[in-house]
Design brief:
Layout: H1 3-19, H2 21-30, H3 36-64, H4 70-88, H5 102-128, H6 132-159, H7 163-180, H8 183-189, H9 193-227
Length: 228
């Protein structure tokens, strides 16, 4: 491998890792409600699915980017993940229930990654300079790192439940960005960069607020039922 090719290869890995932080958060939040014994299985399948989706998007990204509503749907799904995790968190650091199956978590990961991976593929494709082998190899090497980051984050969410609110805010920001950059939204309201950034902040705060209020309502209902 010559110096130029090695430099391009290193750029592919670094860019993909930098752009995959959102995917790691979604992976961790999606498997948060799984029992610990099933969490690793969910992360492995989810990471593998992310790799496959990225490979598929390499060939179809330009066409998919033109589809209306795809990013809106992804943004709404990510929003639901964030709010649901805020509701399920308990004061003891464990979920109120752990009934989600591995395949339910994988389905969430699949849809979320389908809508979040456009920018990843575009960024990595740009630095790979059209070298398909380099692109695929770079994506393959970055997957274990994303898996490890997701695993660590999921463990931190168990140990420090308040991190869920931070993660929910990040997911809210991601959801807003996806929806605001959907071709349909761009055609209707034509948001500029400043508008998108303000919307992301407001939406992230709204997602956390909604999650906190819905959690309080759930705890109130449970306390009333317990008093009967």
């Amino acid at each position: 491998m010559n110096i130029g090719l090695f430099y391009d290869f290193l750029n592919v890995i670094l860019v993909n890792l930098a752009l995959s932080s959102d995917n790691a958060i979604v992976l961790a939040m999606a498997v948060k409600s799984l029992p610990k014994r099933s969490r690793k299985k969910g992360l492995v399948i989810g990471a593998a699915c992310s790799f496959i989706i990225n490979i598929i998007l390499i060939f179809y990204v330009s066409e998919l980017l033109q589809l209306k509503y795809v990013r809106c749907v992804g943004g709404l799904i990510i929003t639901m993940i964030a709010i649901r995790r805020c509701i399920e968190i308990s004061d003891g650091g464990q979920e109120g229930r752990q009934s989600s199956s591995v395949w339910n978590a994988v389905k969430v990961i699949l849809v979320a990654n389908l809508t979040m991976s456009f920018d990843n593929v575009l960024g990595v494709a740009a630095v790979s300079k059209g070298n398909l082998s380099l692109l695929i190899l770079g994506l393959a090497i970055s997957i274990p790192v994303v898996f490890l980051a997701s695993n660590i984050l999921a463990a931190l969410l168990d140990r420090y439940p308040f991190i869920i609110y931070i993660s929910a805010a990040v997911l809210g920001k991601i959801g807003a960005e996806l929806m605001m950059t959907d071709p349909f939204i761009e055609a209707v309201i034509k948001p500029n960069t400043e508008w998108i950034r303000v919307t992301e902040i407001v939406y992230a705060a709204a997602v956390v607020t909604a999650g906190v209020l819905m959690r309080k309502r759930k705890l109130y209902i449970l306390s009333k039922e317990g008093a009967l």
